[in-house]
Design a protein that fits this description.
Layout: H1 2-23, E1 27-32, E2 42-50, E3 56-63, E4 70-74, E5 80-81, E6 90-93, E7 98-103, E8 105-113, E9 123-135, E10 139-151, H2 165-171, H3 178-185
Antiparallel strand pairs: 1-2, 2-8, 3-7, 3-9, 4-9, 5-8, 6-7, 9-10
């Protein structure tokens, strides 16, 4: 009887979690810091996680409990990706413990390196699979996929920073935009 009760409680918790996730929305988006890529060079990228008001998501070190974002890249052979960098986190505490994370929005930074030997006139296409958790009174897991597509710069074409890159970084926890993000990389 006890096993059956535990199974019912587990099923009810899963249904409640799914119902809550249908109502509570947390979204992700992927951004490139440049308008095109050149073979053999790195491309700055940013993953933006948006969290509902008064909710938070976890930092790389989540604290006493929680789950940091898990990000994997499915990209063409030879593409390399660095380690994700997190901005300075906030500290949250309750009766259970202390947690580290971000309220409402966070932007994680990284770089991808495109191999030198890519064919001419191709587009880079990378699919990022992200699993993250948001919490308030309860915690809800989320997962999604986002795609980054970039054209190859033609011969002699300048690769330029996108207009809203610094604004994206500042909104996502990098207080001084690109300058702060570069210091975090060192």
């Amino acid at each position: 009887m006890k096993k059956i009760l535990i199974i019912y409680v587990f099923i009810f918790a899963m249904m409640l979690s799914r119902a809550s996730a249908d109502v509570i929305k947390s979204t992700i988006s992927i951004h490139a810091g440049v308008n095109a890529f050149q073979p053999g060079y790195t491309v700055p990228i940013a993953l933006r996680i948006e969290v509902p008001e008064n909710w938070y998501t976890y930092a790389e070190d989540p604290g006493d409990a929680g789950m940091p974002p898990n990000i994997t890249l499915n990209a063409p052979e030879g593409v390399e990706i660095g380690a994700w960098r997190f901005p300075p986190h906030e500290t949250f505490s309750d009766s259970v413990g202390t947690y580290y994370g971000f309220k409402e929005e966070v932007v994680l930074l990284n770089e991808i390196t495109i191999p030198v030997d890519v064919p001419d006139d191709v587009h880079f296409k990378g699919i990022f699979h992200v699993v993250w958790m948001i919490c308030k009174d309860i915690c809800l897991p989320f997962q999604d996929r986002v795609t980054l597509t970039l054209p190859m710069a033609s011969d002699g074409e300048a690769v330029v920073e996108v207009d809203d890159w610094d604004a994206l970084l500042e909104a996502g926890g990098w207080a001084d935009g690109e300058e702060n993000a570069e210091r975090a990389a060192d």
